[in-house]
Design brief:
The protein is an alpha/beta fold. It has two domains: about 140 residues, NAD(P)-binding Rossmann-like Domain (Rossmann fold, 3-Layer(aba) Sandwich); about 180 residues, 2-Layer Sandwich (Dihydrodipicolinate Reductase, domain 2). Helix content is about 30%, strand content about 25%. The chain has ten helices and 14 strands. It has a six-stranded parallel beta sheet with strand order 2-1-5-6-8-7, with helices on both faces. A six-stranded mixed beta sheet has the order 10-9-11-14-13-12. Helix 5 crosses helix 10.
Length: about 325
């Protein structure tokens, strides 16, 4: 199997290589794809070194699978070219997520909907993935009506330049400003660009993508996305209103058996999810499960995941593995 990784030198691209190895994806030939300036650079994978090529060169090589993590503009232009060449594309950008003809997939939830005719598959937003993994089993069991979510998102979600800004600020050095304000010792309620409705694009991704993945437009979602000075791992404070009165024990029991979820919820031992301990893990961690004392049909959760792992690379590789195991690589 020939696998192209587009954006291989980026943070998510490098994470994809690690996850591919951990998941034992059967790769016979790696095609590392990077910008013109990175052409010829060596990338290590499975104990061998592979040479970076350009997008045009990669298309001509007709890989079986292409994992994209190079931004929306690149995906918009090049994903169809790979698909036309017979390649199955799994795209990590926002370019295709809300396209009605493209599946938006979290394998534990809706991989069964994939067919051989799906040549471009969209990977959801990192914050959406960890949210819907918890919501899906609860929606099936009790019926979710409304979700209010506040995110606490790591600087790794912005990229290496954001990490460099934070570390420079911590060292009292001059920093190249990726954010409009300093991020060290600060919280910025501004992820992505502001839209006409006063929400940011990141917040609307949570709203729209959640509905699409759950397959239910009746689920209302209101989000506030905040960037925090954390190196790896997104956290979410989530209030869920159900169709009936619900107890924390019922929610806890459902989540304990949910795929991809690890419940850490014991206040007596200070057991709860934290981004520091999520780093390098592929699971989504849920804790602080408690009834909403202001509403009998609502429950509060605290959800944490490594945004570079399950929020991006792991989810993409899981999709690839599902497609391979179910003979969906070739149309």
């Amino acid at each position: 199997m020939r696998v192209a990784v587009v954006g291989v030198t980026g943070m998510v691209g490098r994470e994809m290589l690690q996850v591919m190895e951990e998941f034992h994806l059967p790769v016979d030939e790696l095609i590392p794809v990077a910008s013109e300036s990175s052409k010829g650079k060596a990338v290590e994978f499975q104990g061998s070194k592979w040479t970076c090529v350009t997008l045009a060169e990669a298309v001509s090589m007709k890989p079986d699978l292409a994992l994209f993590s190079a931004g929306g503009d690149v995906s918009t232009e090049w994903a169809p070219k790979f698909a036309d060449a017979g390649t199955l594309v799994i795209d990590n950008s926002s370019a295709w997520r809300m396209d009605p003809n493209i599946k938006l997939v979290v394998p534990e939830i809706n991989a069964h909907r994939l067919q051989t005719c799906d040549r471009i598959i969209a990977n959801p937003n990192c914050s959406t993935i960890q949210l819907v993994l918890a919501l899906h089993p609860l929606h099936k069991s009790f019926g979710v009506k409304r979700v209010i979510v506040s995110t606490y998102q790591s600087v790794t979600g912005t990229g290496k330049k954001a990490i460099d800004q934070m570390e420079a600020e911590r060292n009292n050095e001059e920093a190249q400003m990726v954010y409009p304000y300093r991020i060290d010792q600060n919280c910025i309620p501004h992820c992505d660009v502001f839209l006409d409705n006063g929400y940011t694009k990141e917040e609307m991704k949570l709203t729209r993508e959640t509905k699409k993945i759950l397959g239910d437009d009746a689920v209302s979602v209101s989000a506030t996305a905040v960037r925090v000075p954390v190196l790896g791992g997104h956290s979410e404070s989530v209030n869920i209103e159900f169709e009936r009165e619900i107890t924390a024990a019922e929610v806890r029991e459902v989540l304990r058996f949910a795929r991809g979820i690890n419940v850490l919820d014991d206040p007596s031992t200070n057991s709860y999810p934290m981004p520091y301990y999520s780093r390098g893990n592929n699971e989504v961690f849920v804790g602080r499960i408690r009834e909403d004392i202001s509403h009998p049909k609502s429950v509060n959760l605290w959800i944490v995941a490594d945004n570079l792992r399950k929020g991006a690379a792991t989810n993409a590789v899981q999709i690839a593995k599902y497609c391979l195991e179910n003979n969906l690589l070739k149309a």
